[in-house]
Amino acid sequence: MTSTQPSLTIGAVAKRAGVAIDTIRYYEREGLLPEPLRRASGYRSYNESVISRLRFIRRAKDLGFTLEEIRDLLALSADRHRGVKAVKQRAEQRLASIDARIAELMRIRTGLEQLIEACPGRGDPGHCPILRALADEEPQA
């Protein structure tokens, strides 16, 4: 049997790709995977190429790409003329987004660190700078 002939069950695909069966169904509904052929029994039947596509999707998700961005990357991966350049641009955009998120997290971390240092860890809860900050009150000097 060739790799283009559908022969794999959804369970076999899920196991080999390292994803859940429900994930495969979800990606099908979202258009990230092509609609599989159906056997006479009604069961889905897949070929080997869907495993590579699932691994692509999983790795892209691990890098922080959204499903919409992954859909775009999948389309670009087939574009022989502008695909690589466009994929690089998408990756650069993702990196910029990650850098912005890291900067925001560092700002949050610094603020939390300052609140922790200012909190004596005992006494009246009304004087706790952490609780006052969460209640949107101005900390007392």
From TrEMBL:
Keywords recorded for this protein, A-Z: DNA-binding, Transcription, Transcription regulation
Presence of the UniProt keyword DNA-binding in the record: yes
Highest taxon of source: Bacteria
HTH merR-type domain boundaries: 7-76
Pfam families given in the database record: MerR_1 (PF13411)
Protein name as annotated: Heavy metal-responsive transcriptional regulator
Organism: Dyella flava
Organism lineage: Bacteria, Pseudomonadati, Pseudomonadota, Gammaproteobacteria, Lysobacterales
